[in-house]
Amino acid sequence: MKKGKKLYEGKAKIIYATDDKNLVIQYFKDDATAFNNQKKSTIEGKGVLNNRISEHILSNLSQIGIKNHLVKRLNMREQVIKLVEIIPIEFIVRNVATGSITKRLGIEDGTVLKEPLIEYCLKDDKLGDPLIAEEHILAFDWASKKEIEKVKKMILRINDFMIGMFRGVGIKLIDFKLEFGRLKFNDKDEVILADEISPDTCRLWDSITDKKLDKDRFRKNLGDLIPAYTEVAKRLGILHEQSNVSVVNVTKLSSVKRKRK
Asked: Rounded to an integer, what distance in angstroms lies between the CA atom of residue 2 and that of residue 172?
């Protein structure tokens, strides 16, 4: 598959056209950002790990009937994905109260919620991805009521699956962000899961120690991201073929591959 022109560049990924109008290539960058892009850094190897972890999770979700944009992983940093029209909403799924919700509502950090809480944010960096209500979504035609109902059903199933998947490897799924897109199918729009699911988009805590294994390590200056993301990948069984390869060697290999392009 031939990589074409750059179509879009976000904070963590770049999208390239291909010779198939229905497919694009998604490239995972090493850039790390937080607090609406106010804090920035480049962390060597982050994109490699996120590519592998997201591929693993999306592939497993496909097996339980959650349609998503992943077609296949091409290499250490790239995936072929279906071209979708992204719904401009970030769907935040919370199982435990932490982060912004504790500040907004004065909730004690670490409070376990009785039921999963779904929040909506408008996907707009310039506005700081503001929190919105379902009424806003419907009033401004960002998505239809039918689409929102379908997405909420998918979210609850995704959450149930991921809680079990991570619990099985000693990790608590605290919260995570999802995005969805519209795919043309038989001249109709079908809503499917898009973007990525990785430690960049999830809060993941060790089940026993509550050690942070996600991007909060960068947000809160808790130490290097790479060992934490690598730990997640190893627990999920993704890096078993590289069990004798250090993180340093993985990131060096990533650098070599990029230099050859």
From this structure: 40
3-state secondary structure of 113: strand
What CATH number has the domain spanning 85-206?
Answer: 3.30.470.20
Any idea what DSSP says for residue 130?
-
Q: Where are the domains of the chain?
A: 3-84+225-260, 85-206
Q: Which of 176, 236, 235 is nearest to 56 (CA)?
A: 236
- The reply to whether domains 3-84+225-260 and 85-206 share a CATH topology is no
Which of the four pLDDT bands, split at 50, 70 and 90, describes residue 240? low
Q: pLDDT grade, residue 239 (50/70/90)?
A: confident
CA-CA distance, 250 to 197, in Å (whole number)?
21
**Exposure string over 71-94, b if 16+ CB within 10 A, otherwise e:** bebeebbbbbbbbbeebebbbbbb
Positive or negative torsion for Cα 154, 160, 165, 167: positive
Dist CA 244 CA 237 (whole Å): 14
Specify the fold of 3-84+225-260.
Phosphorylase Kinase; domain 1 (3.30.200)
pLDDT single digits (tens) 4-33: 999 999 999 999 999 999 999 999 999 888
Apex 51 CA angle, 210 and 161, nearest 5: 55
pLDDT tens-digit map of 35-53: 776 788 999 999 999 999 9
